[in-house]
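Last lecture ended with a question: if I hand you only a sequence, what can you say about the shape of the protein? Today we answer it with a concrete record. The protein is AsnC family transcriptional regulator. Below, first the input exactly as provided, then the predicted structure, then a couple of comments.
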Amino acid sequence: MKLDKFDREILRVMQRDATVSMAELSQYVGLSHTPCWRRVKRMEADGVIRQKVTLLDSKKLNLGVSVFIYVTLKNHDGDSLVDFEKAVQEIVEIVECHTTSGEKDYLLKVIVESIEEYEQLLKNKLTHLPLVDHLSSTFALKQVKNTTELPIKNI
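The predicted structure:
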């Protein structure tokens, strides 16, 4: 899908505040209400805008421990990868899972309340994921940057 400057500006504004009204959005981007609404609907239909969400503050919810875990699997056949990826979906504390290049197969991001909770998660669930050969955990000490905004460039 080709995006013009108005589409890109709509996306920039909506990334910052998905609750912005159509009237406000049209003012921000310099379009009248109806063309702005049509563009938003088109980008939703095309899947550029997947969903609108509410972002939560993990610290205020007492979920202040972030752990990054590199995972190495015992083998890499198609069924093994599918089984691992399916099992990861079932663990709510895993908030991100990425396949990676290089020596490690996956990178997981886990958010928990405490180190003790992570220890229990590790013992009871993570080490039992299908075909896991090795897990390497790193605790985040401080979050320096946190954005949900994609870097939408100008045309």
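Comments.
1. The chain has two domains: 5-45, 65-139.
2. The helical segments are 5-16, 22-29, 33-45, 78-89, 115-124.
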